[in-house]
């Protein structure tokens, strides 16, 4: 008979772990048998692989035979695989032998396996709650298996207590394991409790956004256990901080909370992911006229975000933390670009607001009185124009228009007399002592007061004006019927008006004129002797009235308070619905003083009225306020 040698191996392959379940034939049967003994976990099916290599000269009919408990699963040459289905409660002997001509050749390789018992079954199922007590039973599908258990959460062993029916009276963790032939099943765990802790509830829902630092959050629960929480997104444990009341945070956070109890099942872990959303400070609003005439215009800046700090620039540069801080309305005297932004702790900086203001030239600028009204006219529309003149007192002057024979060019204004009118002028024209030829003249209410002709240098001039009320002032350049000399023109500059008034006349409680000239010169410049004027604009676009109340010390500017402002309606009547008194009477320096609104619904000549110039819409009507002292 030809000799042969098995050089391959016999082993089982399973989805579960296999321990020592490999049989290999070779020189030493004892070694092969030792390698083939071991234990493994049960599986629904097993695949047995084998491989047999033959030496040269082996019999052609040599077959490898694999048997399980004496049942042949495969009989073939070379290598292959067979599938078998194991049963519970059994031991399995696997053998491998070689047959040739019906006779076994060589040794039989044998391995014995014990199957692990099935897992025990606990009744009632895990998660059952009860009122006061609960009976617990156990069983195992593996015949002859013994169940061991614990009720304190520790792992059961084969040396631990054997199963017997028992009762529990509080929250309990039961663990059980089945044992047979020295093999253990998996540990089965069941938990029972007197109830279930309700899930905690956050005051801010999961996914909520918040805008400011120190955002507060609270957690509500039914006090059936100990509430613990984390702020780093980790799962709460019995070692996590105990919730003791609302807490705050300033950045995005993931809060997790869970209720732990010795009697009830713990609650679920509840999560609130809260996101910090940074909010911009509201963009400042610049309240000003886009264009203005006169010496200055008022600029106010507001911000809808209460408490925000506004900073601004006037030269068009971007504002920053070093820019001027806005503390209240201010005036600008020339064209500029206001840029403002607002900042506030706990907010992002606002957008930059940009507002362009244009200073529009008027004759008053050249005449040295930007707030005083001037007009010009002339034959053939030859009015006076602005010119640069290095010899003029302020470097520029008003020059008469280009006219021809027997024509005139006129520059005019009005004043409230009495007072002294001063100015500078020069001429470049014919010389005539009788002033019948070309010349310049100053007329008051149509009466010529001063004359100038010839080629002259700048000359200072003045005239006294008597009489109350409005006076019309005219500078005229007048030509005769023939010839011209020089530049054939006149120039005027450096206007000044000194009113002779020492007190105002429009209220029974007069504000001293001296105080007005010192503390509210705009009123004096534009309205002369009147103590109040329409120099503000209300929200509806119409002018508003301003007045003053005299205090205990007329020489102290702090004793004069603006007491009221009310807008006018389009029909010229006061908007009574929006009259406000500021400051409130409780803050007046003269306690007990009472403002009384006076006036009529139609424009008349009554001294109760304060009219305005054409520059300020003379069609509007303004009431007077009397202040009644106690």
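^ structure tokens above, recovered residues below v
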């Amino acid at each position: 008979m030809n000799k042969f040698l098995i050089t391959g191996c016999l082993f089982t392959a399973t989805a579960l772990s296999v321990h020592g379940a490999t049989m290999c034939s070779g020189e030493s049967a004892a070694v092969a048998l030792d390698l083939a003994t071991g234990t493994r976990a049960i599986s629904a099916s097993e695949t047995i692989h084998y491989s047999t290599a033959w030496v040269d000269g082996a019999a052609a009919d040599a077959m490898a035979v694999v048997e399980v408990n004496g049942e042949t699963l495969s009989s073939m040459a070379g290598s292959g695989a067979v599938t078998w289905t194991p049963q519970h409660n059994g031991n399995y002997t696997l053998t491998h032998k070689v047959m040739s001509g019906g006779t076994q050749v060589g040794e039989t390789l044998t391995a014995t396996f014990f199957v692990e018992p099935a897992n025990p079954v606990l009744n009632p199922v895990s998660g059952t709650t009860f009122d006061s007590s609960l009976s617990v039973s156990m069983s195992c599908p593996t015949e002859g298996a013994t169940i061991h258990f614990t009720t304190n959460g520790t792992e059961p062993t084969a040396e631990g207590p054997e199963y017997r029916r028992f009762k529990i009276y509080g929250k309990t963790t039961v663990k059980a394991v089945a044992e047979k032939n020295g093999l253990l099943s998996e540990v089965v765990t069941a938990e029972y409790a007197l109830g279930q802790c309700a899930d905690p509830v956050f005051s801010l829902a999961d996914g909520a956004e918040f805008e400011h630092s120190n955002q507060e959050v609270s957690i509500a629960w039914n006090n059936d256990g100990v509430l613990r929480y984390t702020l780093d997104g980790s799962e709460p444990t019995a070692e996590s901080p105990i919730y003791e009341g609302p807490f705050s945070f300033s950045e995005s956070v993931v809060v997790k909370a869970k209720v732990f109890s010795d009697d009830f099942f713990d609650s679920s872990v509840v999560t609130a992911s809260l996101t910090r959303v940074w909010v911009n400070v509201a963009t400042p609003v610049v309240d000003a006229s886009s264009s203005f005439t006169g010496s200055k215009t008022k600029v106010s800046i507001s911000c809808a975000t209460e408490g925000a700090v506004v900073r601004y620039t006037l030269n068009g540069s971007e504002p920053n933390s070093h820019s001027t801080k806005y503390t209240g309305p201010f005036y600008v005297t020339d064209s500029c670009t206001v840029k403002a932004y607002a900042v506030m702790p706990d907010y992002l900086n606002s957008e930059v607001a940009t507002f362009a203001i244009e200073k529009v030239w008027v004759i008053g600028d050249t005449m040295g009185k930007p707030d005083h009204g001037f007009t010009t006219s002339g034959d053939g529309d030859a009015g006076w124009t602005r010119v640069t003149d290095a010899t003029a007192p302020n470097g520029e002057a008003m020059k008469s228009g280009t006219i021809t024979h027997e024509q005139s060019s006129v520059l005019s204004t009005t004043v409230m007399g009495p007072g002294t009118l001063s100015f500078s002028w020069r001429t470049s024209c014919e010389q005539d002592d009788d002033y019948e030829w070309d010349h310049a003249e100053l007329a008051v209410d149509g009466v010529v007061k001063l004359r100038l002709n010839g080629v002259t240098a700048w000359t200072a001039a003045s005239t006294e004006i008597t009489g109350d009320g409005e006076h019309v002032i005219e500078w005229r350049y007048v030509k005769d019927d023939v010839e011209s000399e020089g530049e054939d023109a006149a120039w005027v500059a450096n206007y000044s008006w000194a009113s002779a008034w020492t007190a105002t006349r429009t209220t029974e409680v007069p504000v001293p004129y001296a105080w007005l000239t010192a503390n509210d010169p705009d009123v004096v410049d534009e309205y002369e002797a009147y103590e109040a004027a329409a120099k503000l604009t209300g929200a509806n676009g119409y002018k508003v009235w301003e007045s003053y109340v005299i205090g205990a010390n007329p020489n102290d500017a702090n004793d004069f308070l603006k007491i009221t402002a009310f807008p006018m309606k389009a029909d010229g009547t006061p908007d009574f619905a929006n009259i406000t008194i500021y400051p409130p009477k409780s803050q007046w320096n003269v306690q007990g003083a009472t403002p009384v609104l006076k006036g009529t619904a139609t424009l008349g000549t009554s001294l109760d009225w304060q009219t305005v110039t054409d520059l300020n819409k003379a069609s509007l009507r303004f009431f007077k306020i009397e202040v009644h002292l106690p």
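The chain is about 5% helix and 40% strand.
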